[in-house]
Amino acid sequence: MKPLLEVRGLTKLFGEGCDHCLPGGVAADEGNRCSRCGTVVGCGGVSLEVYPGEVLGVVGESGSGKSTLVRLIHFEYDATAGEVYLNNGQDAPRQNLLEASSFRRRQVRSRAMGIVYQNPTLGLRMQVSSGGNIAEKLLAAGWRNVSEIRRRAADLLRRTEIPVERMDEPPVNFSGGMQQRVQIAKALSNNPQVLLLDEVTTGLDLSVQARVLDLIRSLQRELGIAMIVVSHDLGVIRLLCQRTLVMRHGRVVESGLTDQVFEDPQHGYTQLLVSSQL
Amino acid sequence: MLDVRNLSKTFTLHILGGKVIEGFSGVSFRVTPGEFLGLAGRSGSGKSSVLKCIYGTYLPTTGETWFDSARCGRVNLASCAEQTILQVRNSEMGYVSQFLRVIPRVAAVDVVAEPLLRLGEDPAEARRRASALLERLKIPAKLHDTYPATFSGGEQQRINIARAVIWEPRLLLLDEPTASLDRESQDIVLGLLRELKRKGTSMIGIFHDRASMEAIADRVLEMSNGNREHGPH
Predict the structure, then answer these.
(1) Taking Cα atoms as reference points, which of A107, A112, A152, A103 lies closest to residue A132?
(2) Which CATH number do you get for residue B75?
C-alpha cells in the first residue's frame, strides 16, 4: 500500500539562523532556540507518512511544534526545507508540493485538504453566516451552482448536528462546541483526502468534547478519511489514532503504534509524558 | 503458523535514571495451526510481556516472531513495518487482555460487531451475530444496547472475549481471559475457544487457573525457570 501523504525532512526555522545553528537549527539536545542568534526551530526535519484511511496522532507539550507541523502541511507557512507529496492518483508526475507554484498549492489545499483549528476564529469568519463559511470553501474547490452549494452546506450542518434553520446565522452566535462542529462541516465540504485536526477538543467541556470526538469517529468510520490528529490529550490520541508521533523541541523523538508508544515508550520524554497522565 | 525465536524484553526506564528491568529472556516456541499453547509461570515471570511482544504492544529487545500471514506472507512481526502489523491485527491476529478497554459511548452489541464491520460484514448481520454471541455468553438482551462502561467486571470481560472471538482470527492471544468469571461463564468461554480451535485458530493463552489451562492447552510452556516446555497432556 502506498502512503497518501508523505512528508520528508520538513523544517521550519523562525529567525535568520547563524553559523552555530544552520543548516538544520540547533541540536535537539540544546532545546529549540539557538543560544547565539535566537532562531527557533519550529519543526526540525520531521518525516511521516499517512496511509489511506489512517489516523495518525501527534502528541507533545505546548511549543513542541505540533501545530507548526500541521500548518506547514497545510501550506500556511513557507517551509525552510523539506518535501511534501500527496499521492492521490490524480496527477501523474510526483511533485514535491513545497516546490510547486503557489497556485498549485492552493489548488491542492482547496481540493484535497481540510483543517480544523483549536480556535474557531482561525477557521471561520465569525461574522459571516455558517452556510456562507461552507460556501467559501466550496467555491475555492470549484463549485459554482448556488443551489447545489446551499444544499451541500445544509447536508453538512445536519451531519454535524447544527440545526439547519440556523445555517444563516454567523458562528459568533454559537457556543464553542457548535463553532467547532461548523468548522468540521466546513473542513469536510470538499470531501478532503486528508483532514488535519489541531487540538479540536481542547478547551471544550467534557460532554461537548465527547460529542465532537464521537462525530469525528463516526465520520472517520463512514468516510474513511485519512487524518492527522494533533493533541496534548493522550486519551484523545488513544481513542482515535492507530499510529502516533511524539514531538519535542520541534523534533519527532519517537513514533510507533499508538498502544506501543503508550505502553512501551522508548524515549525518556515519552516515558515522562505517559507517566504524567492522571 | 508462529515461530518465536530467542525472544527477550528488557525495559530501560529513562525517567528513573536509566534503571533496567528484565521482563523475560530467551523464549522460543512454535505454534501450529489449531494448536493451543499455554504459558505458565509465577506472577512477574513475563508471560503477559511475551504476548505483548508478539502483538506489537511491546518492542522486543532481541529475537524474532515469524508469522505465516495469509495476507502479507511470512513476516517477522518483531521487525516488520508498522503498517504490516496493523494489517495483521486487522485481519488475522486478535488479543484479549483481562481488562476491557471500553470504547466510550458505544453500545455493547456494536463493540462486539465492530471487528466484523471492519472485515466488510453487512451491518445488520454483524449486529445479529454479535447479539447471538452475547446471548450465548449470558449477557442479558436488555444490556446489548447499553454502554459497557457501567457493566460489572465479569460482564465487561465477556464483552471483551466476544469481541475477540466473533471474527475468528487465525491467531488469538489470551491474557487471563477468564480471570473475573464464575465457573459457569468460564465453561462457556472454554467452549467457545474449543470451537475456534477446531476451526483452526492457533492460540497462546495465560490462565490464572491451572485447571482451565489444562482443559484446553495442547502444550504448556513454563516461564519461571527460563523456558522449559511441558506436555503434551
Answers:
(1) A152
(2) 3.40.50.300
Q: Which residue in B162, B165, B231, B156 sits closest to B198, CA to CA?
A: B165
Place of cell 511491546: B58
Contact A256 B11 (CB under 8 A): no
Low-confidence ranges of chain B (pLDDT < 50): 225-233
Running along chain A, 278 residues long, what does each successive block of 10 average in pLDDT?
93 86 73 86 94 95 92 95 86 83 92 94 95 94 93 92 93 93 93 94 86 88 92 92 95 96 95 87
Sign of CA dihedral B88, B92, B93, B99: positive
Domain containing residue A80: CATH number: 3.40.50.300
pTM over 0.90: yes
Interface test with B, best of A221, A236, A244, A259 (most B CBs within 10 A): A259
Chain B residues within 8 A of A256 when measuring between CB atoms? 59, 82
Does any domain span residue B103? no
Do the chains contact at B13 and A1, CB–CB below 8 Å? no
CA distance B142 to B155: 13
Instruction: Show the domain range for B199.
Output: 2-98+166-230
Determine, for residues A260 and B58 on separate chains, whether the beta-carbon distance falls below 8 Å: yes
Into how many domains does chain A fold?
A: 1
Residue spans of alpha helices (H) in A59-119? 66-73, 102-112
Q: What are the residues of chain B with a beta carbon less than 8 Å away from any beta carbon of chain A?
A: 11-15, 52, 56-59, 82-83, 85-86, 103-105
**Residue B107 located in a structural domain:** no
Tell me the residue range of the domain where A188 lies. Answer: 5-275
Helix axes A176-188, A146-159, angle to 10 degrees: 130
Q: Where are the alpha helices (DSSP H) in chain B?
A: 47-55, 82-91, 108-118, 123-136, 153-165, 183-198, 210-216
Residue pair B202/B1 in contact (Cβ under 8 Å)? The answer is yes
What is the number of structural domains in chain B? Answer: 1
Of B58, B86, B103, which is closest to A242 when you measure between CB atoms? B86
Within A167-246, where are the H helices? 176-188, 206-223, 234-240
Half-sphere exposure of A79 (CA within 13 A, CB side): 28
Per the listing, cell 507554484 goes with: A101
| Calpha distance B8→B58 (Å, rounded) | 11
B150 within some domain: no
Kindly state the cell numbers that stand for B88: 495483521
Residue B203: beta bridge partners? B36, B172
